[in-house]
Design a protein that fits this description.
- The chain is α+β, with helices and mostly antiparallel strands and 705 residues long.
- 47% of the residues lie in helices and 19% in strands.
- It has 23 helices and 24 strands.
- The strands form four sheets. Strands 5, 6, 7, 8, 9, 10 and 11 form a seven-stranded antiparallel beta sheet that branches. Strands 12-24-23-22-13-20-21 form a seven-stranded mixed beta sheet, with helices on both faces. Strands 14-19-18-17-16-15 form a six-stranded antiparallel beta sheet, covered by helices on one side.
- Strand 22, helix 21 and strand 23 form a beta-alpha-beta unit.
């Protein structure tokens, strides 16, 4: 199965997304995700389906697959208007002229129905060219959208007025200004809505713009002289050499070959303080060189870069629907038929039951059609999620799915791993000892030879400090997650280096690692690690929110208790294997929802089992994390922000849904009893979504801690 990701233009609301989703699912495609706010459409396709036909099918629905001319292989028809603002500005003069006859002093030439028809006709044609065409296409696919209501309302007023004109019934039957007002004001509302919704994508758009920059590519001529010339970073390939100067943006993920510099990764991690980078260090595409010049080799381009992975994660999270949205989606799916039925019932009751004139009854039913807003319910969740995810991403917090935002509201326990989470993970060898059977050089050689096969923080620290040029060549090496490294030589000797839990014949349980040969203790090592500066403040914050804190580690009980006492952690589980960690998380989850924070490698099973798994990881390891939330700033200082954003995003969603439901529950009856004119209803409908968008945008500035 091939994963396909497209940008689709023309989606206005949840109904649009639902239309495309149903079409693609009907074609037998799997893993279909449609996000109408960002215009992102993704699905899995097999060789039986043609991209050309699928793109054509989407365009037949009234949407456009952007930047896919190589797929559609069709020249797009030239459109007279490219956006709603242009349509509004075209319709506005005609509508204003039609409205003049409603002023106290009459313009006699406007009292002629035929002149009003001539003025209204261009507005009606433009309106039906958009609303009418969209309505017909949505009905043809069996998923009626909001434009059905607008098209029916405007057409009803126009046809009623046309009949009055042809039958010479007089001005009491002429409502061309109603038709023009509905179309014009809805165009205005749609444009304002689109601008408001696009603002919810501000943080994500800033990231996306950083994907395309100019790069100084290094090449060599026939005389092997270095030549530097500018290219767009989209033209770079893995292995290319680039020169990055002070003030320039890193064009792609790369490794420094020469020079050193200070780099700001604020765009990706939210940390404004520049980081010193030197030879062999990695640079993340999109970061900024604040000082220094470097020559670097490109290590990843296109969709493989860290920045692309971030954008893809956020887009996937936006495309997913949390449980709170399910009810709104069910209502939106049947909203248009229900409103049409209510409009018909409004006309029948007003005309037959209450003896109200046909003209007034019709205007009331039209007002019901126009005031109704299925988009509000569909927009309530995506708009809030877009802002919440955008603010999180800007601060180096990545949510893998939208569900995590909602789950944060229930978290009552936070479980921490120790090494690299509460501590910096910059381990140093504090002490070591070996018995008389081996020399110090042999002890170091054996330890180095074993630890070079492990990615554990202790192993990395040892191999950095003890660099041996003649390591032992083992016949077999196995890493036992959570315990240590086991290796066998060609002579049949078995070495084990790891925690004391695995080998009970060691007398002292206070050391970090023990070395055994054929089950006989050869020596031990102690490691020192520094507690993170922000750890105490984070634990204090969690306690202020009445959240229980737990330390869960494979390290010794003495060391874990020491860290817990310094930080004030409530409960300690020490010397635990990955399987034991998993069991503890399962037990804690039964009592209350649990968030666990770990390194995402040894703790992967426990992270997956927790209500929310949170990983601290270098951005380059982003793709291999099993956690639902990733803190990219190499620290836990933004954990409170992640918790706060999750809770406040959910509260914003609830506020949006409340407004959307109340708006429709109140507005439809008000229109049905004649307290709203169709023109006022059109304006209210157009701006109802704007209220939700503005409420969502507030999440960018709200204090969430």
């Amino acid at each position: 199965m091939e994963k396909v990701e497209w940008k689709v233009e023309g989606m206005d609301c949840t109904n649009c997304a639902l239309t495309i989703t149903k079409y693609l699912q009907k074609e037998g495609l799997q893993d279909v995700k449609v996000n109408f706010i960002g215009g992102d459409v993704s699905f899995a396709i097999n060789n039986d389906k043609s991209k050309t036909e699928l793109a054509k099918g989407i365009e037949d629905l009234g949407y456009h697959v952007a930047d896919q001319t190589q797929i559609t292989n069709r020249k797009q028809a030239t459109k007279l208007f490219s956006n709603h603002l242009q349509r509004f500005l075209f319709c506005l003069p005609f509508t204003l002229v039609l409205m003049l006859h409603m002023l106290p002093w009459h313009f006699h030439f406007l009292m002629n129905p035929w002149i009003q028809l001539a003025i209204c006709l261009p507005v009606f044609i433009v309106g039906m060219g958009y609303f009418g065409v969209s309505a017909v296409k949505s009905l043809r696919r069996g998923v009626p959208n909001m434009n059905v209501l607008i098209a029916i309302g405007a057409t009803a007023a126009f046809v009623y007025s046309l009949i009055g004109t042809l039958s010479n019934m007089g001005m009491d039957y002429i409502f061309y200004e109603t038709t023009a007002t509905i179309i014009t004001l809805v165009f205005l509302g749609e444009w304002v809505e689109h601008k408001s919704v696009s603002t919810t994508q501000k943080a994500l758009n800033q990231l996306a713009r950083k994907q395309k920059v100019m790069a100084n590519m290094i090449a060599f001529d026939d005389e092997h002289k270095e030549q530097i010339f500018p290219v767009e970073n989209t033209q770079l390939r893995v292995g290319d050499l680039v020169l990055i100067k002070t003030g320039e943006q890193v064009p792609a993920d790369c490794k420094i070959l020469w020079g050193d510099a200070h780099v700001s990764e604020a765009l990706l991690t939210g940390e404004s303080k520049p980081i010193k980078k030197q030879k062999k260090d990695t640079l993340i595409g999109g970061s900024l060189l604040t000082d220094g010049n470097v020559k670097a080799q490109v290590t990843a381009v296109g969709n493989d870069t860290v920045l692309s992975n971030i954008l893809n994660l956020v887009k996937q999270a936006q495309g997913e629907k949390p449980p709170v949205q399910q009810l709104a989606d069910k209502i939106s799916a049947v909203f248009v038929p229900v409103v049409v039925s209510i409009a018909v019932l409004t006309f029948l009751l007003n005309y037959f039951a209450f003896n109200i004139s046909v003209t007034t009854s019709l205007m009331r039913s039209i007002a019901v059609l126009v005031i109704s807003c299925p988009c509000a319910m569909g927009l309530a969740t995506p708009a809030a999620i877009a802002v919440g995810l955008g603010r999180a991403t800007k601060n180096g917090i990545l949510f893998r799915n939208a569900k995590s935002l909602e789950l944060f509201k229930n978290i009552q326990t936070v479980v921490f791993d120790k090494t690299g989470t509460l501590t910096k993970g910059n381990l140093t060898i504090a002490a070591f000892e070996h018995n008389s059977e081996i020399t110090e050089a042999d002890f170091k050689r054996i330890v180095f030879s074993l630890e070079k096969f492990s990615n554990h923080p202790i192993a990395k620290a040892i191999t950095e400090q003890w660099k041996i040029n003649n390591p032992i060549l083992f016949k077999k090496v196995d890493e036992i997650k959570g315990s240590g490294i086991k290796a066998e030589t060609a002579e049949g000797d078995v070495y084990f280096l790891g925690s004391n839990n695995e080998k009970q014949n060691a007398n002292n349980k206070e050391h970090n690692a023990y070395l055994f040969k054929n089950n006989q203790l050869l020596g031990w090592l102690d490691m020192d690690d520094e507690i993170r500066e922000e750890a105490k403040a984070v634990i204090t914050y969690l306690h202020s929110k009445k959240i229980k804190t737990v330390l869960l580690s494979g390290d010794s009980l003495e060391r874990c208790k020491k860290v817990a006492n310094i930080l004030g952690i409530d409960e300690v589980y020490a010397e635990k294997t990955p399987d034991e960690k998993l069991t503890i998380i399962e037990t804690l989850n039964k009592t209350a929802p649990v968030a666990m924070i770990g390194d995402g490698i040894n703790d992967a099973p426990a992270l997956a089992k927790a209500t929310i798994g949170i990983s601290l990881s270098d951005a380059s390891h982003l793709a291999v994390q099993t956690a639902q939330v990733v803190l990219m700033n190499k620290g836990i200082q933004h954990l409170p922000l992640a918790l706060g954003l999750g809770k406040h995003t959910f509260s914003t969603i609830k506020g949006n849904l409340f407004w959307a439901f109340i708006y429709n529950v109140v507005a439809i009856p008000v229109a049905a009893i004649g307290l709203l004119q169709p023109g006022v209803a059109a304006l209210a409908m157009g701006f109802s979504d704007v209220v939700l968008a503005i409420n969502s945008i507030r999440l960018n500035y709200r204090k969430v801690l």
